Amino acid sequence: MELDDLIVLQKGHVNDCLPPSYAGVIGEEAVSQLKQIKTDLSTAASLLDLHSSKGIFHKLNLYLKLKYPLSADDATFIVERLLFFVYSKEIDMHSQTKALNACAKLMVRKDLKVHIDWRPIYERLAALQSQSRAMGYAGKQVRGFHSSGLVQFAHFARRYFAPDAAEKIFAEIRPLFNPHDSNIFHAQSLLCLLSPVRNDVFWSDRVDELLAMWGWIEHAPEWDSQFVSLFARLAKVRAFSSTVKDWTQQQVATLFSNCLRMLDLALGNSNLPKPNGRSASTLTSLLSLKDLQRWRKIAKLIVYLLRPNSVTLKESALGYFQELISSISTYYHPSNGGGWSSRLALLLKGLAEYFTHRYAKEHLPSSPFSTEQKLTDADRDVFIDTLSDYRHCSVRKGHRDADVCRTVSQTPCIYSPEEGFPLSARTNRSGTQW
């Protein structure tokens, strides 16, 4: 049986849906194909064989598409061989794009034993700003696919950087932040894309500086979305870390103020530029978040800023969250519909989903977190009550707003985490459940 013939079979759980004899044949074929892929990759990587590399990527992509079992050691072996094609300057751009996409699919896993150098990736991303424009339509299309694959690869590769990579990346990019130069958008995109956030001690000393840099430019959705994405990742790491100092009251207040400004709820016309304007940089346009992603990043930042036992503290993240929702409550009224209704509905849905995710992670029996790191029942009650007041206010015509209402209404089900979570069935990019 050829691997191409297996594409017609059902993805995932294929062995559970077939007779035992046929499932055994497919299992043997998968083992044989994996062995052949590893052999061909090793040969092609040592010789940089351009002709055979395209066939190898085709087989590998089909193998991953069928979701056959792949151990951590095998995945690490394949990624290490694919890196030869990623870093090579002799391979053509089309084959290199295939290698980037295959690496990204494998690096979604968090159990790989591979170390990736950030410098070659940084140099390739920095070159996007000065790429040649004297090419035809077909050349620009291939360049676009390659740039998208490179960004996706960098997104997953940063978790495998060295522990001191964040400090080196910041020292490399920080001099490029010139408020009087449009290349500052490109520098910001490089910083937010490449910087790993697991080095808590380093980022704790840079929070005030980053917040000050965030305030340099206003009314720029690309600028705001990149920083809110970086701070959302940092807040998630800090929420489950007991070795780093907590956010200060001034930092939390500044973050919530920036989130409110990003919602763009000013009276009258919008202050933000139209989305069809020319991007400041090629990399910035690739990393620019869509509305759905932008509001979800805001929701993620808010949820992971919450700290346990903060109900009685007015100047806390939970208190600022209540004030934020209260200040925009009039925009949730059915008689006050407008261009902001959709983004506010998506914000409610993101808040409900991320809070359910965090609460489940903290309170499941197998949770590794201590009692001091878990949100209390009082924190949970205040958060749910704040959302429940507006669960019916965003219901309008369209499946999106009805889905928002259903999601927010189901949030109180997390009162009994051991009975299951209605939102935990939502899958992430890797296809695995929360």
Structural account:
With 434 residues, the chain is an all-alpha fold. Among the domains are: 1-114, no CATH class; 341-434. Helix content is 58%, strand content 0%. It contains 18 helices and no strands. It has helices at residues 20-47, 50-65, 72-87, 93-106, 118-126, 137-157, 165-173, 184-194, 200-204, 207-214, 221-239, 249-263, 282-287, 291-305, 317-327, 341-363, 377-388, 399-410. Helix 1 (20-47) runs antiparallel to helix 2 (50-65), helix 1 (20-47) packs parallel to helix 3 and helix 7 runs antiparallel to helix 8 (184-194). The radius of gyration is 24 Å and the shape is globular. The two termini are 35 Å apart. The model is unreliable at 1-16, 132-138, 274-280, 394-402 and 412-434 (pLDDT under 50).
Topology:
Elements (H helix, E strand, L loop, with lengths): L19 H28 L2 H16 L6 H16 L5 H14 L11 H9 L10 H21 L7 H9 L10 H11 L5 H5 L2 H8 L6 H19 L9 H15 L18 H6 L3 H15 L11 H11 L13 H23 L13 H12 L10 H12 L24
Helix pairs in contact: 1-2, 1-3, 2-4, 3-4, 4-6, 5-6, 5-8, 7-8, 8-11, 11-14, 12-14, 12-15, 14-16, 16-18
